[in-house]
Every structure is written in C-alpha cells, then in structure tokens.
Amino acid sequence: MLKVEHLQVAYGKVQTLWDVSFEVPKGEIVALVGANGAGKTTTLKTLSALLRPRAGAITLDGESLADCSSTQVVERGIVHVPEGRRLFPEMTVLDNLLMGAYSTSKGGRRERLDKVYAIFPLLKERERQVAGTLSGGEQQMAAIGRGLMAEPRLLMLDEPTLGLAPIVVEEMFRVVKDINASGVTVLLVEQNTQHALLVANRGYVLEAGRVVLAGTGSELLTNEEVRRAYLGL
Questions:
Q1: Under a CB-based contact definition with an 8 Å cutoff, are residues 103 and 75 in contact?
Q2: What is the pTM (predicted TM-score) of this model?
Q3: I need a surface site. Which of 8, 46, 99, 107 has the fewest CB within 10 A?
Q4: Is residue 80 part of a domain?
Q5: Spatial separation of the C-alpha atoms in residues 179 and 136, rounded to whole Å
Q6: Domains of the chain: total
Q7: What is the CA radius of gyration of the chain?
C-alpha cells in the first residue's frame, strides 16, 4: 500500500532523517518505534507533505506522492492524527469532528459520525461540550474521531497515548485494533514500545534518523537489543 524508500529530510541545514525505508501493507498495523528525536514525527510530517524530503521516494499503491499537497494526500486517503491532539479548543466536540470531514462530500457524513460514536460512545455524550474542557483521554478520542471522519484508507497516529493514564492507554490500544479490524490500515508512532509492538503486525525501529531494525511485532518484542534499549529488560 504505502512504500517509503531511502527518505532524507532536513529542517533547514539540520538533517533529521538520513535513510528511512519501510512498507505499510494494506490491512496491517505497522509501528514506528524509537527514542525521542529518532525521527518518528518527522517521518509522519513528511508523509503528510508538511515537510518536503531532500531525497527518497514515497508511493501509495505504486503512485508517487512527491508532488502532492497536504490536501491531496488526505484526498488520496492518508490521514494524520498529530501528536498533541491539535483540537480547536473553543469549538464543540461535534464541530471538531465535522472539521475532519471538510475534504469529503456531505453525503454520508451522518453515517460516518455514527461510526465514530460507535467507537467512542463518550463523544456522543460530549458532542455539545467545548473541546478544550475535555480530559486528555477524551481529547485524544476526539482527535482520532476527527481523523476517521475523513474516511482514511491509511490512518497515521502520532503518540496517541502520550500523557494518558495507564487505564486509558489500554483503551487506546484496544481502539487502534478495532479501527484496524474495521478495514483501516494503521501506521502507529509510539514511545510505548511494548504496547505498540504487541498490536502491530510489523514494526520498524528508528534511531538517529535511520531504520536500524525491522521485523514482525513479535520478533521485535523478543529481540535482545529492543528489549534492552526500549523495554528496560
């Protein structure tokens, strides 16, 4: 589905990604894991066309995304839920969700909203509440729900459990699995390495802007280097 080859990205003169290659097959959950500063968020921003690569190729179903704008990336079915949620805090939950559907036709929005409420029943109860007054976990639900309103083929989640209580973290990973089971391919960026690899079909370890390890989720969980560096075992 998505193929990334030898990606290099820089912020001005400071290069962040040096050689990032990976694939996201249709229907799978693929995890990008690594320490802070490894290049995970930069990778997602580049896939969303928020950053332009110095070198490398990004293709979706064999077609290059090199000349696509961020809007065109979304129109092709790649939706990015950014780190930090990035909701409109003074708007209601409902209005935030509807913002996710701005690039889609009005037909079917009600059905999509109902699907989001089926995944996150709490959002239905809170739909008239101002988003800035939600708890951290509730805001993350709204951010993911907003992404789903765009009808993604590939949903990219950047640190969806960051700063959340352990019980909410467990719920978020259950939601990721449910979203994937509904037919949405998922690219998951997470510092919670153990949970991410438990739900992932395959994973890639980024270190200093390079992919240094790759394998199935279970293979990486038992890899001694991963266990020592990222699981504290």
A1: yes
A2: 0.92
A3: 107
A4: no
A5: 20
A6: 1
A7: 17
**pLDDT of 164:** 86
- Which H helix or E strand runs over 137? helix 136-148
Q: Which residue shows structure tokens 């930069």?
A: 42
Whether 14 is in a domain gets the answer no
* pLDDT for the residue 147: 95
Residue 206 lies inside a defined structural domain of this protein: no
Three-class DSSP category at 120: coil
The tokens describing 181, both together, are 């089971």
Q: What is the DSSP string of 39-92?
A: SHHHHHHHHTTSS--SEEEEEETTEE-TT--HHHHHHTTEEEE-TT----TTSB
Q: What is the pLDDT of residue 232?
A: 61
Pick out the chain residues at pLDDT < 70: 105, 232-233
Strand pairing class (154-158; 78-81): parallel
Q: At what angle do helices 136-148 and 166-181 cross, to 10 degrees?
A: 10
